[in-house]
Amino acid sequence: MKTVNALFSYHRWLAGDMKHFEFSDAVLDTGALHASVEHHAAGGYASFEGWVRDHNDGRSVRRLEYEAYVDLAIKEGERIVAEAITRFGVRHARCVHRVGSLELGELAVWVGVSSAHRAEAFAACRYIIDEVKHRVPIWKKEHYTNGDSGWVNCERCAQASDHTHSHEHVDHHPPHEPHAHPAGLQVPDYSRQTILASVGPEGQRKIRASRVLVVGAGGLGTPVLSLLAGAGVGTLGVVDDDTLDPSNLHRQTMYSLADCGRPKALLAAERIRALNPEVDVRPYVERAAATNLVALSAGYDVLVDCSDNFSTRFAVNDTAVQLQKTAVVASVYQYEGQIQVIRPNGACLRCLWPKATSDGTVGNCAEVGVLGPVPSVLGSLQALEVLKLILGLPSPATHSLILVDLLSLEVRRLGTKQATECVGNTCQRIPQQPFISDTEPLELLARPLQLYVDEGYTLIDLRDDKERAADPLHVEHQCILAATLSAKPQQLNSNSRYLLLCSRGQRSLATTKAVRAAGISSAWSMQGGLSRAKKA
Amino acid sequence: MITVEIQYYALLREQAGKSTERIETMAKTALELYREVQQRHGFSLAPDQLQVAINSDFSHWDVALENGQRIVFIPPVAGG
User: Fold this and answer.
1) Per-residue pLDDT averaged across A420-443, rounded?
2) DSSP, residue by residue, A46-82
3) Which residue has the higher pLDDT, A379 or A159?
4) A162 and A181 in contact (C-beta within 8 Å)?
């Protein structure tokens, strides 16, 4: 029955009449929904179900009615699911929301995502439900046990939007509760900066017209984002694939303890929308790397590197040089920091550090520690440099490396010269191979090997003859001893994807690290090895 | 014998346990000077992982040192 459903749904999907986002006035059939996102290339599936609960805001709820502004809601919902598919690279994603009257315990909203790997499935699922709650105009009427009832806006629309869809369509909807708009009709006021002679109304127009991409929403990124949003930068992109951890909060004070576990890019976007609804903020929950930065940077004038590792920092540098854009780059170490503005045809990071620096040679914040205000100072300097660029103010940070020692409060400016090999987009030092991500997971889940073969992985058995004879593999694979591959990882081809196998997953993990260190990023170890795959 | 003031940043400062020192040295170049202090403080970074600046400008490692100069050794930093 399930197979028939799946095939039916899949053919409907292929025929183009399956929607990514839809409303239903009938009870949702989770079996059919699940089947509609099944795919042979998917190694995992994540789902979220929102249920009608028996209380809200201290009041006892008996049942609910959902109402949506359907035309607008479907458009926005489709956009959200499409964004999730593109950003996380998942196979299928779908969201269905109920409308009409619902009893306690009924399924109100369903999100399902299938993808090759679990991390993307979880992230895309979370993205969809968070964004749907935030952006799609849906209202619910709560019927309380005492006989009263009241209309409530969807979770965050009430907090965040004071001038967007909820007001535009106010005539189509039941009235909001008066306290649903705590921000009232407040509008941004830039007067404290426009009274500066160097800003004025013309400068404010320039700020409004500017588009800035911030890579990293951590210690450096959060002050950059807050200050640029506050200043009224028209478009702010935020790239970060990380989730918030409690250890971030001493320096990333834009966030709250309750936010831990959620993607920072989405959290930052929420804060920015609350701070200044005029900013068009675009979160990208993905890791910035040489492979995606060119596409990500397309709609932006200035790149701000706030990452915490060399591979991303060099990737931002290389993208800026190739696309002839300006990048404001900073980094911190314990009580000090460095900042550099990279202009088209000026000195870049590779002029300064010709031997591209690999991660692990000097520590990052997690490894060596940092005092919270240090990245805030450097991030504030980055925001300042961006505003100076937009306003056309002179900056000594151009053609210089600025060293800031916050223990001695000494600032040193060292002149940088462009290397002869490094001239704009013809820079000879930028590698042709994409820079390798150092946080791509090393391990993939243990599951039947044929699934990996079907997904296009080349399997490599690292075990010795004796082990192989005792427990032979029955799928297509190659045999290379772990020691041989660690000594000569170059025999692998960076255009293929490799899954390394041993009996318990220890040798394969060590060998994967050696292969990655040799610059081949497309190798993974199977977690727990063959013994765990048998149980899967 | 010349006297120079050395400034250390980041990992070098941490390993030297100080951010500046004034030393008398026989070193003829920045590279010789780095080798000398590397020995003394046990610096883990090789010269090709660093930048050197003399007074306020980046310099080459083989430039001859002069009495009274300020030599700055700078490692790249990664944190954010």
Assistant:
1) 69
2) EEEEEE--SEETTEEEEEEEEEE-HHHHHHHHHHHHH
3) A379
4) yes
pLDDT number for residue A86:
82
The rounded distance, in Å, linking the Cα atoms of B16 and B28 is 22
A304 phi, psi to nearest 5 deg: -120, 115
* Confidence band for A513, pLDDT divided at 50, 70 and 90: confident
Written as one letter, the residue type at A447 is R
Q: What letter would DSSP give residue A25?
A: S
Count Cβ atoms below 10 Å from residue B61 Cβ, excluding itself: 15
CA distance A413 to A403: 6
| Integer Cα distance of A522 and A460 in angstroms | 13
Kindly state the greatest CA–CA separation across chain B: 41
pLDDT for the residue A166:
35
> What is the rounded distance in angstroms from the CA atom of residue A87 to the CA atom of residue A220?
23
pLDDT on residue B70: 93
> Do A295 and A288 meet the contact criterion of CB atoms below 8 Å apart?
no
Q: What is the tens place of the pLDDT at every residue in A335-368?
A: 999 999 999 888 999 988 887 676 666 666 777 7
Least confident segment among A65-79, A105-119, A303-317: A65-79
- The whole-number average pLDDT for the span A256-274 is 93
Residue A46 amino acid letter: A
Distance (Å, whole) CA A68 – CA A108: 13
Note which residues in 346-385 of chain A have CB less than 8 A from chain B: 352-353, 355, 357, 359, 361-365, 368, 370, 375
Separation CA A218–CA A28 (nearest Å): 40
Chain B residues close to A375, C-beta within 8 Å: 79-80
- Interface contact A362-B48, CB threshold 8 A: no
| A494: pLDDT strictly greater than 90 | no
Which residues does chain A have within 8 Å of residue B79's beta carbon, measured at their own beta carbons?
A: 219, 308, 331-333, 363-365, 368, 370, 375
Q: Would an 8 Å CB–CB cutoff place B28 in contact with chain A?
A: no
Alpha-helical segments (H) within A357-492? 365-368, 373-391, 449-454, 465-470, 482-487
Q: Is B78 on the interface with A (CB under 8 A)?
A: yes
Judged by average pLDDT, the poorest of A62-66, A100-104, B35-39 is A62-66
Cβ-based contacts of A221 with chain B (< 8 Å)? 80
**pLDDT given for residue A134 in this prediction:** 79
Interface residue B17 vs chain A (CB under 8 A): no
Picking from A435, A430, A123, A429, the residue whose alpha carbon sits closest to that of residue A291 is: A435
User: CA angle, A228 as apex, A222 and A234 as ends, to 5°?
Assistant: 125
Return d(Cα A303, Cα A326) in angstroms, integer.
6
Q: Chain B interface, mutation test: which of A414, A418, A435, most B Cβ atoms within 10 Å?
A: A414
Q: Is pLDDT above 70 for A438?
A: no
The C-alpha atoms of residue A304 and residue A517 are separated, in whole angstroms, by 27
